[in-house]
Amino acid sequence: MIMGLMAQSCFEYNPNQIILDDDEKNLTEKYVAEIQAKPAPDTIKMAFMGDTQRFYDEAELFVKDANKRDDITFIMHGGDISDFGLVKEFRWVHDIMSESKVPYLTAVGNHDLLANGKKVYREMYGDYNYTFTYGNYLFVILDTNSREYEFNGNIPDLNWLSARLEENTANRNVIVISHVPPYNSDFDDELEAEYASILANDPNVVLSLHAHEHSYLDEEVYGDGVRYFVTTTVNKEGYALLSLWDDGLSIERVKFDD
């Protein structure tokens, strides 16, 4: 009986061990540096995809499709890298994504915070909330997975969001990126109106990008001038290609199947 319990305990523990190689750590800092090391083109092309979870074959197809193009500047993974928050899932997806010809960045998803995922994500990628600039754009990435924090009123961190927008003294165009869109039931409904208001009251905010819903959405959700775009899951063999220039942007839905 004791041996059986020990075996069971080991089985439950091992999947959650965080054992990463050095080249699998601090990927956000590494890839942001790679992006910024090259002069921004007149039109930045960002591939926005998400929800790889257990869809490894489809994730490979996405990378193959992206690699066929010569115009993508970088890739943004909109979250749910993993399904159960296990280190092996993060590593499997990173192995696939690292085959891309261009750097990829991530937003943390709700599934990424399960089990030991909070620690895995921090060690592999870095902070849940971060920003970077490229060309005339400020990208603001934050954790909006309120349900995983039992709707404690602190996620998303709207004080942090407001502070980052106030620091944009160069008046760069702002794209806010997170996994859960504000109108979704997994977003703290006590914070929804304030989130929308923060974005609407900043004239530099041009877009709020999300994943999570496994389907596309593209509309001005609150009628306040802010465009909300949700990308589909790679399991549906699709992603969005954003073209960003100084005075505007466009979004193309891309289908891949072989």
Task: Give the gist of this structure.
This protein is α/β, with parallel strands linked by helices.
Topology record:
Layout: H1 2-13, H2 27-36, E1 44-49, H3 56-68, E2 74-77, H4 87-97, E3 104-106, H5 117-124, E4 130-134, E5 137-141, H6 158-166, E6 173-177, H7 189-200, E7 205-210, E8 217-219, E9 228-230, E10 238-245, E11 248-255
Parallel strand pairs: 1-2, 2-3, 5-6, 6-7, 7-9
Antiparallel strand pairs: 1-10, 4-5, 8-9, 10-11
What do you see in this structure?
- Helices cover 29% and strands 22% of the residues.
- With 258 residues, the chain is an alpha/beta fold.
- The chain has one domain (2-255): Purple Acid Phosphatase, chain A, domain 2 (4-Layer Sandwich).
- The protein has a six-stranded mixed beta sheet with strand order 4-5-6-7-9-8. It has a five-stranded mixed beta sheet with strand order 3-2-1-10-11.
- 40% of the residues are buried.
- Mean pLDDT is 93; it is low at 1-13.
CATH superfamily: Metallo-dependent phosphatases
Structural class call reads: alpha/beta
The whole-number mean of residue pLDDT values reads 93
What percent of the residues sit in helical stretches (DSSP H or I)? Answer: 25-40%
Quantity of strands, as a count? 11
Largest beta-sheet details:
6 strands, mixed
Q: Name the overall outline.
A: globular
Number of domains in the coordinates?
1
CATH topology: Purple Acid Phosphatase, chain A, domain 2
Q: What is the top-level CATH class?
A: Alpha Beta
In CATH, the architecture is: 4-Layer Sandwich
